[in-house]
What we know:
Layout: E1 3-9, H1 21-24, H2 29-43, E2 45-51, H3 55-64, E3 71-75, H4 84-93, E4 97-101, E5 123-126, H5 131-144
Parallel strand pairs: 1-2, 1-3, 3-4, 4-5
Helix pairs in contact: 2-5, 3-4
The structure holds ligand CA2.
Amino acid sequence: MSRKVLILNGPNLNMxxxxxxxxxxxxxxxDIDKSCREYGRDLGLEIDFRQSNAEAELVTWIQQARGTVxxxxxxxxxxxxxxxxxxxxxxxxxxxxVEVHLSNIFQREPFRAExxxxxxxxxxxxxxxxxxxxxxxxxxxxxxxxxxxK
Length: 150
Ligand code: CA2
């Protein structure tokens, strides 16, 4: 049986592939969505891939994940470094969270090295561009034992 994984993307990630390609790569968010669905299918994972520029919407989606998905992959964008509301929601959700960043946030401006999301995440993948999402799916597959019967 397929297991559901929620992949959430925060502000400005809808602009991927249009600017700052030297930092974030040339793949669009639609490209990443497609590649996650395909890779997830191979791992027996059903992917629900979303993006929002609104903190409140991300919080609501995280709350709704409780009891409905097996894991969350989260690239919270700039909210990573600012949002106590997202951290609180992640702490409540009782679902494993893998934090993803396209860029290596520890090599950039000092304010990007601080992540509220990390406090609630099982682990973090940063600096591998779009491939990081597939690495996160591998990690989740291991964590929840996907491909095995529930
Ligand atoms: O490296 C990442 O994945 C980030 O989460 C991306 C965020 C940034 O604020 C985080 O520090 C690290 C920003 C995403 C903005 O993406 C754009 C893409 C194209 C053009 C402009 C922004």
